[in-house]
Design goal:
The protein has about 1100 residues and is an alpha+beta fold. The chain folds into 7 domains: about 55-205, Galactose-binding domain-like (Jelly Rolls), CATH 2.60.120.260; about 210-270, no CATH class; about 290-555, Alpha-Beta Barrel (7-stranded beta/alpha barrel), CATH 3.20.110; about 565-660, Substrate Binding Domain Of Dnak, Chain:A, Domain 2, CATH 1.20.1270.50; about 665-685 and about 695-735 and about 1000-1005, no CATH class; about 740-995, Golgi alpha-mannosidase II, domain 4 (Beta-galactosidase, Chain A, domain 5), CATH 2.70.98; about 1020-1125, Immunoglobulin-like (Sandwich), CATH 2.60.40. The strands form 12 sheets. It has a 9-stranded antiparallel beta sheet. The chain has a 6-stranded antiparallel beta sheet with strand order 3-2-5-10-7-8. It has a 6-stranded antiparallel beta sheet with strand order 34-33-39-46-45-42, with no helix packed on it. A hairpin with a 2-residue loop joins β30 and β31. It is elongated, with a radius of gyration of 34 Å. The protein binds zinc ion. Zinc ion binds near residues 295, 407, 622 and 623. Zinc ion binds near residues 295, 297, 407, 622 and 623. It catalyses: Hydrolysis of terminal, non-reducing alpha-D-mannose residues in alpha-D-mannosides. This is Alpha-mannosidase. Keywords: Glycosidase, Hydrolase, Metal-binding. Degrades free oligosaccharides in the vacuole.
């Protein structure tokens, strides 16, 4: 045998002194050649000779040893373990193919392990179906996931327990699923729904564990020489050692492996391996905190049902790793994912729960899902956390203290306040996505993030620039070299592990980190990485080091992502579903609260309401609501919105009936062809502000004659009527008089004018040529310019559904209505119908103006309403509505959660220019001293102010990852609302609430069991007075009232303009208040509120002081409920 001698030859004898004789032919080290050579120790052209040739000692796949049988579930069905086991399995073999995409296949695997193999350190089964799979024991307990294929995330090995090796027999069950990590498409292209997958590996294998360990040693040395500066001692040393290892290794001499590993100890430290997890000496200060993570997008290039499998596979895999690596800690977010595991994989959930309770598996984030950070309403963001935190508390007895949105496409400035109020301790925040900015580099790594109201959280954006780190030395070192404010904080979070079906950290990541730490214990060139701690430990360390944030830089306002700006508009259906559901649930909660107080035998339907909220929150996931998922996801999402609409409407109907008796929704009168007896029209107003509006009444069926008596205007075609719903007790006949001035008229062939006493709009040649304030006699459009619809080419550089790029603005093309007709002309509603034809699409818009102003605010103007029906078949085109406004302002205002954000109208700097397309909620506005114009909308989220052009983004048409994005029918509405004040004194926010929560028109028969007195427009018993900047939005029952047998009402109040307020909450006298508290968003008491009684009315008055954009939750305990007078 060659064996030991060679190694002795390779290393010359050690000298004891400097020799006299200088005959050595030593040469200058050609470092680049050594470096190239060192890259050849594993794989590559020398793989039959290098380390790769000795990684396996045994491998068998003969069916004598590996017995396989399979059952394929029909279609895309996803049976449970028990259901699958009831079927007939048929024999299968390596090389068989399975498909098509999204199908599930169950395997029974019986392994016969040769008796001689008990001598080996490890025997494993390798199963590679080239797709994702889950291994169960024969009783149905999930053991671990499989990630097939040849990518870096490959995980196909399953360790056969030693007892089974000894017994010589081992049985398992596997479910393989025909999709990969990123679904079944090519990158972000639409899915290939006919992909088939081959069973490439089903082998019993004995790995040469020492050879694998040498590979890890060597890789660490390689990473050191690749990533450290070239003139550093450790970099050169690492390269020299690689060279030495290559000289020492012989693939025909197993003993050289140990010699090679000994060489690696020159950098890793002598005997480092025997320390095991104790290598992480806690007495040394850490620079890098490692935490395992698995970013499982709740839906993206695959549907929700596939995510459920990914979760179960990934998390059970991590439980297994925790049993093998004591230092391993794993964090994951999303209560929804835990709930799926609990419902669908109870045994897997139990294993996870045990690790949570043992402090190793760390729930983080506190939210229902990792939601979009821009578009959910304020109340929805609260529910994300309320549902999430309550779930974590109920299952694990813990609440999350670190908010976690690593991948959301920008983060609203309302979030810090919401985070801090969702659990008293929540003050940490982790994110990462801003490293994707395509214009400016975000300047901080660790900083105080202060929201629009002044609340701050401690924010860390990992300088590793990924939440899928591979735990290499390069990742670890980037935690320092890419850190943007080392002067104030020198630590970083290393969030490592493969997401989306990669199963989280691989064992070799944990092995590598031990080696990197071992090296750090030897040399200061290697940053100290620490394991075995939590994300919270990391933040606590920052707090200590920075005097609780004092020495950190601060970022004020939103964290705007300079990327993915198309996501405010992509997939109109999901945006509409989101807005309509949020509004519906707000209405349901208010009416259900009132019904629960007044209604006999009516119980507040917590579970049914929260089921709806869970669906809405789920669809707010950061690839669903933004419109960046595949088409299948939107089929699921629309189904969920359909359920919310159905259940919400039913809940609303039940609650109205319990609250107010036999009111008949006007829609039901038509749908059910009801014959009405005498009675009157009333309107249920769910907004806690008085209002007066024109409503539309359909006139069909047996009740048309009866209803005609209740209306003031019949439509030209006789199918509809308009009635005035007046919620001002003192208005008298004022409105009738004003209403007479409203008009729609035609001048010549192509000029149409809508006008009332305060506003007028002219359309000429199919374009809006004038928007005129009749009272101030002021033209609001820039002279010589026109407004209307406009279309742009929309061809982003790569991320199709995600991105619209600044250059799209260069392709602006104004569109003209080809046909305009008069539709209604007073006395309370005037309207035009306008049509526009594009090469492949049709846009029909009804433009209307009512006699009433938008609100009761003095000087309020009427809004001009646009109701659009679009049949959309463009590709890569972007439709917007724009007006060139004769208003000068450096900033425009856009509604965000519980307030607004101002953004530049100019492009002075690259930071300003980057905000060429931004997110808005129900309104956006451009104002100068004394005047402004707002756009309101009912389901759109993209807007911009490009100089004096204000634009609302309406429809896009990307083709990846959904080839059919936005193709087909759309309905949406927007309005133009001029106001004769600056935005700050305007009625825009409340008008936007009205626009989104239309009055519910009902018919109240004279006879029948009416419970309550009925004014024309229902008036809420809760109102805020004395501060026009304070809005009461949500009214609901206390979360635990039923359990605690309490009668509590929770009110969400906020300051909407950005200033202080001293307001009074008035509660009508028929509700007696026992106690009043302010609470956090989890409805836990903060402080008591003083109540007083209004002498004349007996109403309860509660004084509230608020600061700019403050969210105030008030909890009232009701002691007695009487009938309102
Ligand atoms: Zn994501």
């Amino acid at each position: 045998m060659y064996c030991n001698h060679r190694a002795e030859h390779a290393t010359p004898p050690t000298r004891s002194s400097y020799p006299l004789d200088g005959s050595s032919p030593g040469h200058k080290w050609i470092k680049s050649l050594t470096n190239d050579r060192a890259g050849q120790f594993t794989g590559g052209r020398w793989s039959s000779l290098n380390l790769s040739s000795v990684l396996y000692t045994e491998r068998i796949d003969d069916k004598k040893y590996v017995e396989l049988s399979v059952w394929s579930a029909p279609g895309r069905s996803k049976p449970t373990f028990e259901e699958a086991m009831r079927n007939k399995f048929k024999p299968a073999k390596k090389g068989d193919h399975f498909g098509p995409s999204w199908t599930n296949h169950w395997w029974k695997v019986k392994l016969h392990v040769p008796t001689a193999w008990t001598k080996y350190e490890r025997v494993q089964f390798e199963f590679d179906p080239s797709c994702e799979a889950m291994i169960f024991d024969v009783h149905g307990t999930p053991l671990q996931g499989i990630t097939g294929g040849w990518g870096g995330e490959r995980r196909v090995e399953h360790i056969i327990p030693p007892a089974a090796v000894k017994a010589g027999i081992y049985e398992i069950v596997i479910e393989s699923s025909c999709n990969g990590l990123f679904g079944v498409g090519d990158s972000i292209e639409p899915p290939n729904n006919n992909r088939w997958f081959g069973l490439w590996t089903a082998d019993i294998v004995v790995p040469n564990m020492e050879a694998w360990r040498l590979m890890l040693d060597y890789n660490t040395l390689r990473q050191l020489s690749d990533n450290l500066p070239g003139n550093s001692p450790t970099q050169n040393h690492a390269l020299v050692l690689q060279n030495k290892i290559m000289n020492t290794f012989r693939n025909d001499d197993p003993s050289t492996i140990a010699q090679c590993r000994k060489i690696a100890e020159e950098i890793l430290g002598e005997g480092w391996e025997s320390k095991g997890a104790d290598i992480y000496d806690k007495n040394v200060d850490a620079l890098i905190y490692g935490i395992g993570y698995c970013h499982i997008d709740t839906a993206w290039l695959w549907p929700y049902s596939v995510t459920q499998q990914k979760v179960a596979r990934s998390w059970t895999t991590q439980v297994d790793l925790m049993n093998r690596y004591p230092e391993h800690r794993f964090t994951c977010s999303s209560a929804q994912q835990f709930k799926w595991l609990e419902q669908l994989y109870p045994a897997g959930f139990k294993a996870v729960k045990d690790k949570v309770l043992a402090g190793k598996f760390h729930p983080v984030g506190g939210a229902w899902v990792e939601h979009d950070g821009n578009m959910p309403s304020g109340e929805a963001l609260i529910r994300q956390n309320l549902l999430g935190q309550r779930y974590f508390q109920s299952r694990f007895g813990v609440r999350c203290v670190t908010a976690w949105l690593p991948d959301s496409f920008g983060l609203s400035g309302a979030l810090p306040q919401i985070f801090r109020l969702c659990g008293m301790k929540a003050r940490n925040f982790f994110t990462q996505k801003l490293s994707w900015n395509n214009v400016n580099v975000f300047p901080h790594t660790t900083f105080n993030w202060t929201g629009i109201d002044g609340t701050q959280v401690l924010c860390h954006m990992t300088p590793v620039d990924t939440y899928n780190a591979q735990a290499t030395f390069g990742d670890v070192r980037r935690g320092i070299t890419n850190h943007k404010n080392l002067e104030s904080s020198n630590t970083a979070l290393l969030v490592f592990g493969n997401g989306d079906g990669g199963g989280g950290p691989l064992p070799n990541m944990l092995d590598s980190l031990r080696r990197i730490r071992a090296a750090a214990n030897q040399t200061p060139d290697v940053p100290v990485v620490h394991m075995g701690t939590s994300v919270e430990d990391f933040y606590a360390d920052i707090e200590r080091d920075t005097n609780y944030g004092e020495t950190l830089p601060t970022w004020h306002g939103e964290l705007y992502l300079e990327f993915h700006r198309g996501t405010y508009t992509s997939h109109g259906s999901i945006k509409r579903g989101n807005r309509k559901s949020e509004i519906l649930l707000r209405e349901v909660e208010y009416v259900a609260t009132m019904a629960s107080l007044h209604g006999k035998d009516y119980e507040y339907p917590y579970d049914r309401i929260n089921e709806c909220w869970e669906k809405v929150c789920l669809n707010q996931f950061h690839d669903v609501l933004p419109g960046s998922a595949i088409g299948m996801v939107y089929e699921d999402a629309e189904k969920l919105y359909g359920e919310v609409a159905r259940d919400g409407k039913q809940l609303f109907k039940e609650a109205v009936s319990a609250y107010m008796g036999n009111l008949i929704p006007i829609a039901s009168v038509m749908e059910e062809q009801l014959a009405l007896s005498n009675g009157k029209l009333v309107a249920f107003n769910t907004v806690h502000h008085a209002r007066r509006e024109v409503v539309e009444i359909p006139l069909k069926g047996p009740s048309a004659t009866r209803l005609r008596k209740e209306v003031v205007q019949i439509s030209k075609d006789g199918t509809r009527a308009y009635a005035l719903m007046d919620g001002d007790d003192n208005a008298g006949g004022l409105l009738q008089a004003k209403g007479l001035s409203i008009l729609a008229m035609q001048k010549g062939d192509d000029e149409f004018i809508l006008t009332n006493s305060n506003i007028s709009m002219t359309i000429k040649g199919g374009r809006i040529t004038s928007l005129y304030d009749m009272i101030l006699q002021r033209e609001l459009l820039i002279k010589g310019m026109t407004g209307g619809l406009v279309i742009f080419d929309d061809r982003p550089n790569y991320w199709d559904a995600w991105d619209v790029e600044i250059f799209h603005l260069e392709t602006r093309e104004p569109l003209s209505f080809s046909k305009v007709t008069l539709a209604e002309s007073g006395p309370v509603r005037a309207a035009l119908r306008a049509e526009l034809k594009l090469p492949k699409s049709t846009v029909k818009v009804t433009i209307s103006l009512d006699a009433t102003p938008a609100t009761f605010q003095p000087n309020s103007r009427s809004l001009i309403r646009f109701d659009a029906e679009v049949d959309w078949h463009e590709r890569h085109r972007f439709l917007k509505f724009e007006l060139p406004l004769n208003i000068r302002a450096h900033d425009a205002y856009y509604e965000t959660q519980f307030g607004h954000v101002s953004r530049p109208t100019h492009k002075n700097t690259t930071w300003d220019a980057a905000k060429f397309e931004v997110c808005c909620h129900k309104y956006c506005d451009i104002s100068e001293f004394g005047y402004g114009v707002a756009f309101l909308n009912d389901c759109k989220y993209g807007a911009s102010a490009d100089g004096q052009f204000m634009r609302l983004s309406l429809l896009r048409a990307a083709t990846a990852p959904d080839a059919e994005q936005d193709q087909g029918k759309h309905e949406f509405s927007w309005a133009v609302l001029p106001h004769a004040t600056h935005f700050m004194q305007s009625d825009v926010p409340i008008a936007a609430q009205f626009f989104n929560s239309p009055l519910h028109v009902m018919y109240a028969p004279e006879s029948g069991p009416l419970r309550l007195a009925l004014p024309t427009v229902h008036k809420s018993p809760f109102s805020v007075e004395g501060a026009p900047n304070v809005v009461l939005e949500t009214v609901k029952r206390g979360e635990d009232d039923t359990k605690k047998k309490l009668t509590r009402v929770v009110l969400r109040i906020f300051e909407a303009y950005g200033g202080h307020a001293s307001a009074t909450l008035r509660v009508a006298s028929h509700l007696s208040i026992d106690r009043a508290y302010t609470t956090n968003l989890l409805e836990e008491k903060i402080s008591a509120l003083e109540t007083s009684t209004h002498e004349a009315t007996g109403d309860t008055l509660i004084k509230l002081d608020l600061h700019a954009f403050q969210i105030l939750t008030v909890r009232l305990t009701i002691s007695k409920v009487e009938m309102p007078s």
